């Protein structure tokens, strides 16, 4: 394929040895600093302490209608002025609705773009630096620095956390950490498109875990919607050129841990006194994930991300550090933007948007990496994504109560 979904600058190599990677260079992005988000895919409700002012397109401005003399010469003038004022009042909600839709569309665009960049940057780094634990630590390190800067600069209120709250958050942080780690492990072993095809099975794990630990029995419609998801992923797997069992099971483990985090958030953080606003919860989880990853990285991979080691491995130090940084910034940005979107729409609509995001990432990665895709593989991916969309729609159907 000669076309690509995103324009990039001329190629260069992360490695001093051209055989290791024929890279293509991205233009650096200015990462959107989000001040408002929603955590947990709608499973935990919070009210944020960091407000975002939406663009206002209201026609009501100060002094829009000039003051007239106390005694108008004609009653029709007063009637017409009152009618015009009422018309302005009626136009304002429409204008606000349009501006809200515009802002929401921009947020969706950023969500998809940051996810694409995270996936591609991470894949390029992991191709020449096959240490997913270290890469995961670098992403949580950058996120922790961002959080501390936001608190230091008073962009968000510094939270006061009790021991009971930390104890409730810890299991969520563990699942969040494992989810990102397994995603990076999968990206390092198989193609980006295949990783995201497998991750389309998240609804399957959500239904199973919710039934096991929350007692939420799925309806027959949800069960039927899961069939094309499982069938599509299976079809895509048996025809995947880059298939690797480690990459496959890592993506599956990512689904399991991410959905376990969502179930735990329902089961553990149910007390009102334990509730935190969304950005605070995500910030604390990011810091806890960083703390958890430091000893894990040292024990599993040692200290690999140093100039001397990278140089000895024949890698381009500047470029691999740049791409690692941009991957980490993109990861933190797409997470926050996703929660900002969830604050504005329903969880069901958000899940539909997440399905579209998955398709965008798959197509973008196939075009960028020129991943060979067979017709049967494309069919399997399409069936799986269609199943995810169907699942998000049938969730609206409420079971009949007797």
TrEMBL record:
It is found in: Plastid, Chloroplast membrane. Residues 103-392 form the Sugar phosphate transporter domain. The chain crosses the membrane at residues 102-121, 128-151, 163-183, 204-230, 242-258, 279-300, 376-394. The keyword Chloroplast applies. InterPro entries: EmrE-like, Sugar_P_trans_dom, Tpt_PEP_transl, TPT_transporter. The keyword rRNA-binding does not apply. GO terms for cellular component: chloroplast membrane. Keywords: Chloroplast, Membrane, Plastid, Transit peptide, Transmembrane, Transmembrane helix, Transport. It is a multi-pass membrane protein. One of its GO terms (molecular function) is organophosphate ester transmembrane transporter activity. PANTHER family: SOLUTE CARRIER FAMILY 35. NCBIfam families: tpt. This is Sugar phosphate transporter domain-containing protein.
């Amino acid at each position: 394929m000669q076309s690509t979904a995103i324009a990039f600058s001329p190629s260069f190599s992360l490695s001093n040895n051209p055989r290791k990677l024929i890279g293509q260079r991205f233009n650096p992005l200015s990462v959107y600093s989000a001040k408002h988000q929603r955590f947990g895919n709608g499973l935990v409700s919070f009210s944020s302490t960091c407000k975002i002012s939406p663009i206002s397109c209201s026609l009501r401005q100060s002094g829009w209608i000039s003051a007239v003399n106390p005694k108008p010469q004609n009653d029709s003038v007063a009637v017409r002025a009152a009618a015009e004022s009422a018309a302005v009042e009626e136009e304002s909600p429409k204008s606000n609705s349009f501006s809200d839709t515009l802002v929401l569309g921009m947020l969706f665009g950023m969500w998809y773009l940051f996810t694409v960049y995270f996936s591609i940057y991470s894949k390029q780094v992991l191709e020449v630096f096959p240490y997913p634990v270290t890469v995961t630590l670098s992403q949580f390190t950058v996120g922790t620095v961002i959080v501390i800067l936001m608190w230091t600069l008073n962009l968000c209120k510094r939270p006061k956390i009790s021991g009971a709250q930390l104890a409730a958050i810890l299991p969520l942080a563990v699942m969040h950490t494992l989810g990102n780690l397994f995603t990076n492990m999968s990206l390092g072993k198989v193609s980006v498109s295949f990783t995201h095809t497998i991750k389309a099975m998240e609804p399957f794990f959500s239904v199973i875990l919710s039934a096991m630990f929350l007692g939420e029995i799925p309806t027959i419609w949800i069960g039927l919607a899961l069939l094309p998801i499982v069938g599509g992923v299976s079809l895509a797997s048996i025809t995947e050129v880059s298939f690797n069992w480690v990459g496959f099971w890592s993506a599956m483990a990512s689904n399991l841990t991410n959905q376990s985090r969502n179930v735990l958030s329902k089961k553990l953080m149910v007390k009102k006194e334990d509730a935190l606003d969304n950005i605070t919860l995500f910030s604390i989880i990011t810091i806890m994930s960083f703390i958890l990853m430091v000893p894990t990285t040292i024990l599993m991979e040692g200290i690999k991300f140093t100039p001397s080691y990278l140089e000895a491995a024949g890698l381009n130090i500047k470029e691999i550090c740049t791409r690692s940084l941009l991957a980490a910034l993109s990861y933190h940005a797409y997470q926050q933007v996703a929660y900002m979107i969830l604050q504005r729409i329903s969880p069901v609509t958000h899940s539909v948007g997440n399905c579209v995001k998955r398709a965008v990432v798959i197509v973008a990665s196939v075009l960028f990496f020129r991943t060979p895709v067979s017709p049967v593989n494309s069919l399997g991916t399409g069936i799986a994504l269609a199943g995810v969309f169907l699942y998000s729609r049938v969730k609206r159907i409420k079971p009949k109560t007797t």
